[in-house]
Design brief:
By secondary structure, the protein is an alpha/beta fold. It is 43% helix and 14% strand. The chain folds into two domains: 76 residues, no CATH class; 295 residues, pyruvate-formate lyase- activating enzyme (Alpha-Beta Horseshoe), CATH 3.80.30.
């Protein structure tokens, strides 16, 4: 995106440009300096962007709209706060005429925005200021029915936690059953929500939920506490038992590294061993990455332990900070080893795991093929794991 902005500015210097998103929101000064982009939208853009367009049409190219940042005479304007909407209920839906027929369209639904939790490694709470807003069940059902009229029957909920509001989720299941709707959907949830509401997930299985993604991150109590996960090991074990009883596939997230005093060889081995011994579904492993706006980023920057700001490497596959108990190379080499140990420990259970995922439309067979190809290149051809995974 940076290169594209620079190219456009060089080719069409009079053209107004704008960029948004998490990175631009927290690093707007750097983004403007590097790309000479006209505006950076800090936060949600649906309201402030339309306000900007209206002002530009009137000839005002430097309007005072909080969240629409621009630089003038060396000063940054409108950067006092991140633009967050109070109401997401009435946002217009995408229409099919906006979708180029030459591209594959995969409908994604957002029933809520934000997260009230404050995990140290996640930029969601910083971006949304801890706010959490929900659309009505009626609006979400209308959107699903619209997409179904296009011939779609499988949806990914982009909510950071679809099941946070349990009452809403039960109403959603009620509506699906009342309307007689048949479709598959994937979503994200939390360990503690599963433990407290096993009957909810049983309902979700019956109403089309095919995949739930859940963040564990670590099996070390001290690390969970430092990450502000608000879960414990007993809850993790309970959640796994509950999910294994349901006809829902499940992904579990694991993080290597913690950015603090627990970055030691012993803790790293303990965490990998913990995940290897559990009867989990799929495990998605990443290296702790200090994304701008997060507590982890702020702490590591204050300690002068961020190795570089080559943002292409902030991909959760490279270690961009200096651990205290070993080198960054140790953490990068641990990533493929962790994948091998975790998945080889499953043994024959991988076969029914794959078959069930395909039947539930929870996993694309091509994703499995890509993963196997990556591991083959790493193990037998001695290729660099990170570079192979990127390709």
């Amino acid at each position: 995106m940076r290169d594209l902005l620079i190219y456009i500015k060089e080719k069409y210097p009079e053209l107004k440009t704008i960029i948004g998103g998490h990175h631009a929101t927290f690093m707007y000064k750097e983004v403007i300096a590097e790309t000479d982009v006209s505006y950076v939208c800090r936060g949600e853009g649906e309201e402030v962007f339309t306000q900007l367009l209206a002002e530009i049409e009137k000839g005002n190219t430097q309007p005072e709209i909080e969240g629409i940042v621009f630089k003038k005479d060396g000063d940054f304007h409108n950067d006092g706060k991140i633009a967050i909407m109070e109401n997401i209920e009435d946002l217009p839906l995408i229409t099919r005429d906006l979708c180029d027929p030459q591209f594959t369209f995969s409908p994604k639904i957002v029933s809520s925005r934000g997260c009230p939790f404050h995990c140290s490694f996640c930029s969601i709470s910083a971006f949304y200021g801890g706010s959490y807003r929900k659309r009505s069940v009626k609006k979400v059902i209308e959107e699903i029915k619209e997409f179904k009229s296009w011939g779609e029957d499988s949806f990914w909920f982009h909510d950071d936690n679809l099941t946070l509001d349990v009452a809403w989720m039960n109403d959603f299941c009620d509506a699906i059953e009342a309307e007689g709707l048949k479709f598959n959907y994937n979503c994200m949830s939390r360990v503690d929500t599963i433990c407290k509401n096993p009957e909810l997930f049983a309902r979700m299985a019956k109403t089309g939920c095919s995949l739930v993604s859940i963040g564990i991150e670590s099996g070390i109590p001290e690390v969970l506490e430092k990450m502000h996960k608000k879960i414990n090991v007993d809850q993790i074990l309970d959640a796994i038992k509950i999910m294994n009883k349901l006809s829902i596939s499940h992904n579990w997230y694991m993080i290597l590294g913690s950015g603090d005093e627990f970055d030691t060889p012993e803790h790293l081995k303990t965490n990998i061993r913990f995940f290897s011994k559990l009867p989990l579904g799929y495990v998605l492993i990443s290296i702790l990455t200090p994304f701008p706006g997060t507590e982890v980023y702020n702490n590591l920057k204050a300690e002068n332990r961020i190795r570089h700001y080559n943002w292409e490497d902030y991909d959760a596959m490279h270690c961009v900070y200096e651990p205290t108990g070993f080198s960054y190379e140790v953490l990068e080499k641990a990533l493929p080893k962790a994948y091998l140990k975790v998945y080889l420990s499953k043994g024959w259970r991988l076969i029914p795991l794959f078959i069930q995922s395909f039947k539930r439309k929870a996993m694309d067979p091509s994703a499995i093929g890509s993963a196997l190809k990556t591991m083959f290149k790493y193990v037998f051809l001695r290729k660099n794991f990170q570079e192979t995974l990127k390709k």
